[in-house]
């Protein structure tokens, strides 16, 4: 299909190492993806050759750093099909991006105003809204999840009403792999007069986001899941939505004028970027997205889903395994519970064989309660994984299960 996972894998230095005497099989990319050489080199080059603070300097190094920093903003805008770089706000991660919106929206929330979330949300797209429930009297309404892990779109429209101020929904569940119909959700919410925030921290990696096609007011992503560094995230907002938000933090860069008696603020996106920004990290994210752009997203998704299907087929006859989330069209996340074994123990035993998986609640406790599990184990497939990785994962999982029987 025009995609060579072995060639892609060769660009990740860490994937050549061993763990516990075994070749590393890294299946924890949904938590944080590994970094290709292109990202590492771009960040090193920035620090070694042209590091300085951005925007306010007039010397050569500052001009070079500013150019690279703002070019990264342009790369993100192209990646999301945003209408302009001015709709891209740098944050320190997806969590801060959601909190930025919650802080601004919260100033106008009145007791009884409603915010709709889903049962499959990550805590970063739940807790900020709980803060508005506690501090402003907002009411949280929950869109239900079906037994197969899909969002109940028959029940969703009934949640909307005249008091709905915001709908906050994940593009792709970090536990179930479910890819939600975010354009349809956005259309329904807008018809009810509500704004829409999409948590794209997983969807940006696996669902080829197009913010103009989705039509959302806000879209959030984080760099470290997109093969970029930690400490950098993005808030996309329409020009109207960003203009309506007040400043999130105060300091340098986000102001237009400061006097003893008053202060005026910069236009978006700089209004929301107080202080010295994550310069090297933004450059690193830009490098990650440029590197990623060499691949056909459809071919990458087909490869990842083939790995997922292979694992599921090999495990089909094992009745002790319960797969969580089997919605049609889901992404390549295999989250499961093993009968008679705790998820943490399963993950630790698999690590003995060099297989890195995630275990716990995956920052989605309401979903765990909905599914009736106290914890689960998750294998997340990425473009650098291979069929050999998948077989090693299945073999290690069977050995882990046999340890408990």
From TrEMBL:
InterPro entries: Aminotrans_V_dom, Aminotrans_V_PyrdxlP_BS, Cys_dSase_SufS, PyrdxlP-dep_Trfase, PyrdxlP-dep_Trfase_major, PyrdxlP-dep_Trfase_small
UniProt keyword annotation of Transferase present: yes
Cofactor(s) the protein needs: pyridoxal 5'-phosphate
Catalyses which reaction(s): (sulfur carrier)-H + L-cysteine = (sulfur carrier)-SH + L-alanine
Keyword Cytoplasm included in the entry's annotation: no
One Pfam family, short name: Aminotran_5
Top-level EC class as recorded in UniProt: transferase
Alphabetized UniProt keyword annotations: Pyridoxal phosphate, Transferase
Boundaries of every Aminotransferase class V domain copy: 25-393
Function: Catalyzes the removal of elemental sulfur and selenium atoms from L-cysteine, L-cystine, L-selenocysteine, and L-selenocystine to produce L-alanine.
NCBIfam families, A to Z: sufS
Similarity comment: family membership: Belongs to the class-V pyridoxal-phosphate-dependent aminotransferase family. Csd subfamily.
Protein's UniProt name: Cysteine desulfurase
Organism ancestry: Bacteria, Pseudomonadati, Pseudomonadota, Alphaproteobacteria, Caulobacterales
